[in-house]
Amino acid sequence: MTDTDLIVPVEVHALLATRAVNEYDDFRRWAPKYPWTFDKEHRHNAEPSIQHSDGNPGEGIHVQWQLPEALATGAIDPATGVSTFPLVPNRWLVIRYAQVRGELKAAGFLVHSDYLEKADGGPANSAFTPFVDPRSPKEAPRADYIGRAHPLADGPWQEPPARPLFLTAIGSGLPAFAAFAPYHEDVFLFHDTLADLKGNDNYPPPCAVSYCVIGWYSDDDADILHTARNIEGLLPPDAGPDSPADVLRALGWAAPEDMPDTLTRTRYVGTALGIPWNREGGHPDDPDRPAGREVKVAIGHSTADAVAALVARQTPGDRLANQVRALFHGNPDQLDDPDWLSTLDEITRRSWFSGHDGGATWQVVNRPSEQVDAQAPPPEQPAWITTLNREQDAYDQAKAQLASARWRLWRVWWLRHLPDNRRPLDFEFDERAWDQEIGEAGSKVAELATEVQRLSGLVPHGLTPEETQREIDRYAQDRDLSHELELKRTPRQSYHRPADPVLALTSTNASRGITQPLTRDEDDPLPCRLPSRLLNRANINGTWVPAPDSPLLPDNTPEIPGIVHAVVAEFALLDQAVRTPATNGTDTALHTIVADRCAHAEGPWPEYTRVWHQPWLPLYLQWEIKHCATPYQSSQEDAPHWEFDGDRYRWNGEGAASGAGEGGRRWTAFGGRAFLTPSLRYVLREQARRLAEHAPSELAGQLRTARQELDDLDVLSQSLDGFHDWLVQQDGAAQAVTDHSVLSLAGETNHVPDGAEGHGAQRFQPVRASQFYFIELVIIDRFGRALSLVKPNQTEPIQFPLLRADSVVPDAGLFPDPPGPQRFVQLPPRLVQPARVRLETVPLRSDQPPAPAPQATGPGQLPGADAPVAGWLLVNHLDRTLLVYGPDGEPLGELRVVRDTHNTPTTAWNALPHAPYSHPRDDDFAAAYPHVAAFACGLLPNGPLGHGPEAFEALSKTIDTALDHILEPAPDEDRSPARLIGRPVALIRTRLNLDLLGEPLTDPSWRSALKTQPDEDCSEYRWTVRLGDPDRLTDGLIGYFAADDHDQPTRYDRLHAVDPDGPSNNYVTAISTDTGVHLTLPVRPADRPATHHLTLLACPHTAVHATTDILPVSDVAVDADTTHRALTRIRASFRLNPLLAPDRFGPPAATASTKAKPGHPASAMTDGDPTTSYESSEPPAAGDWACLDLHTERQVEAIDLLLGRPDGTHTPQATDLEASTDGEQWTLLVSSGQVTEIHHVPDAPLTARYLRLRHTAPADEPFAVREFTALAEPPDSSLVMPRPAAWHGNWTWAEPIAVDGTATGLPLPDWDEHLIYNADQLSHPDAPLPIARSGYLQLQPANPGQTPSTPASAASPALEGPPS
């Protein structure tokens, strides 16, 4: 026989509802009330409240078939994010075998699952499961009833006229439609009253009952084998839609062995075997359902938090609890890291929140290069990047404002159109005022929607990553971005909202668990079979019994092509086995077969086949609490009732809401129901599997072992869904349909405002802070059976032994000596509205000046202006100095303690060799490096910010102490010469905001709904931010400089240090709650933030963390490329005085006739670094020049010039390369047009002292020279002394050309720099005599590709006068 059908197993559950079950079991059952939702006189949620129950199930057997997971799971379209659920079988044949008084009887029932009573024109009361007519218009949905069962004893089944199929696992949009029995009777459940077995009896007689369920699609074209191709996201890209094998693989189904290519449709088969019906036979055995006292319940802010509390109570110590948390979050390998506990705690706390998109920012970056050594400098940001970021910020903020405006419109519209009985009794309803407010709110929405649409056209974006990247590429191409560069989109920090509290439940009775599998393991696909290859015989008590050739069939059994006979024959064989007692006398023969089916059965085994027992299938968690607010702050004038200890907020026991309830407090009741899922087991197993794939062999083995052990984990978890919605008077569980008249403006919504009508349950709390306890807690299974853990009577809530995570244990009692203190749960302050800690670096070009300082204009033109590092510091222990460098590593100066003319210690500043400016108090220094100048002035005496030498000593000691405790992630990767002195630290410019997503929430209740501003503006509450973490080795903060308050310029008169050290002073202050120096900020909308402008003193390789407790920990770090670029430019400087050594020539001196652009001095032409350059401040005229002075006549063998910027701009129009011995008479060497490189090698070495590049034509833009070098003999001037080892670069000697000094206002000295040649033991009678020198020994980092032992040309200052 050629098979055309595929048999897919379904799991069948059967609830035995005897008289005892209905009498002693607690049931919570309800059906959706769609008319409540659609009727404008009601406007209630379709699902009844938790207090509602429709009563117990009817007597009989309730047979429920569970759809295969693939048919109950929606596939998400990656382009739209819309979930599409597959159509499911809409015809089910239920065959019952019943052995009554020794006689086997067969009955059949045809379940017409997609029958609609009203839409199909059926008689009244022919269906009773509520549904929504799928063909009714969306703006005017119609309630209907679905499903019917046709007893075949009443006549053959007549297939109704064909119409499009619509039935899916979620029905009319209820996620539990295919799971909760009252939602789908006569759809996926058949209630068998057994009435046909009564005969002359009043009730059905005792009998053994078995069921076989067979399902199919009434239209083969709707079969999943044909429709899978039409469901976006279901089939992987490489799957063939016409290949049954590929479709089955995508569905998680195992193809049968030797599956033919003739399959065209699926059939769904399951059984329930050996149900002992006896109406008066007492309560059936309940082997899976635990007693309420056997269930332990834990609560926390997240699943991991609650489960860790469960584990911690069951095992000594906290190691296992930490392992569970680590595996849940996917980082068990970090348990051995030095900071593992801090990292794990941070990740766990992050899971206490749900994330929301925070927008984006843009920058131009170098396109990745295939050349590993090609480290191009960060590109200068084009002007349009500033515009793009401004437009992106406007777009992000406009979207948030639009969402806030839509919610306001919807809430006012909803309340306005509620019936009169939904308003408070004494409420004066002004219809005109409400309609006016709706009109104004609608106009605001329309205005913002237009603005969002306009802004969306200004920024690259798309629905998918691929579409977004195409738009980014198009945007960059339209702006002629170089091919070597690319436009990069970087997400901003996410907004976060507190997640609802989570319960974790487990049974202490190992034989009575509370979980069932969430999903099949991907390593265990659902085994499908063929009609020709079913179970053909079984060993029943030692005798092999074949499947009957002519099984008993009910009258009028419909012919389902190809399968009915074979399937019922297998069912008859299994029913015979379950009705045959086993030889041991206690079980049935089927028990023996199931226990060892390989030895006792022949043929492919039907999945889910087992002997029946009363099912316990937890589905819902229903709960009710009593809640008491413990506000963060009673008013803006009052002090907060919660105090931040640097890690978390703790309640001081004051401010709790007063009332007439227990303990003199105001209690409000709130409840809900939500799905219970064994997601913890699934998540842990999947994490173990995923991590094992890439883990080292030892860890991989441990993870695989843990994955197997997790199969027995019996833990259910569920959040208290809707908790935070309830606090702000929103009903997130409402399945209200947005009215068509307002849909285009308000958009689709999944929640409605709670106007607090009638009962006056005013509870609006946009800043959550409270305690609560459970007055009822119930587990409800698929059939509505309930297991009560807490009942709402006088003693049970008090005695409830709730296990609490440390994070929810109250800091103080709500009232003195409360009974049952273990029941109370504390929720610390949280912003219910999404918010974020926005700690980010600030590019110098867009930074604000410090205080006090004039408005700076220089940083935008200096190297490093696109980076956030204001400067670099090195503590030089050899010289007892603090070396200060600019953003790009350029030398600025050193701070040291000296003695003045009165022999008094004082802090002094000396400019380092080749520093561009003299003293930080000079205007030009402050304009170019405002924050470095302010920092230095804060340490110098006799100024508005100045301190004594003890401040310098304390700063140096504090830096040393901090660096001893800061662990760099990869210290071996930092090969910069500066490490010979010490670890460089950075002055990092940052800004700190607490941003609110959209406008602050306002009270949606009747009495406040028309107000546009909140009664109490919680956005002005001050929240503490702790920067740095003294207990965290991977936090890089040493200290920070801040203003007295937000939106003020940074002050440098005090360093707030993580771990201060050194002598007593008023400059270095500890970051401490006790001293009140933590940063505080209000939370405001992102378009009008309160901003702290900060300078962080930090290790550049490690992030700095910001802790608030009200939001996840945030961090900020300097880009690694920025750090690497600057550190490789820093020249370590050691002051020597005196040094007795002779010299020879000096290095070439570079000059130019046109003034240099700040940050691009003439000396850059000879610094040996092609990434720096001399750049003129204006376009050159004909006759302008750039010149090298070799100091004496030398034999020049080659001349090399690199012209213009790396991108090809700023190249001269036309030039002559000339040479001279005296600077007066010039010899032409070569003429060039507009070129980027000149390489001249004379036929024979020429004698020259001066080399000049002269412009022979004017240019339209300034010109740049990156390198101007000459190969000449004898070599450059050098200082003769023992040369230090050149492992990290090349050593030079720099000494100032004598001037009067370097104090403020005096001229900056020129420097004479010498290469160092190693002294030898030979006689040099012609060498000059040694002289005493004062200067700096400097280490120049080796350039890429240059061996450190090869002398590199050193930078030299410009000559006083140009050659003529």
From TrEMBL:
It holds the Pfam family F5_F8_type_C. Residues 1133-1273 form the F5/8 type C domain. InterPro entries: FA58C (IPR000421), Galactose-bd-like_sf (IPR008979). Residues 1147-1156, 1347-1358 have a biased composition (Low complexity). Residues 843-862, 1141-1180, 1333-1364 are annotated as: Disordered. This is F5/8 type C domain-containing protein. It comes from Streptomyces tubercidicus.
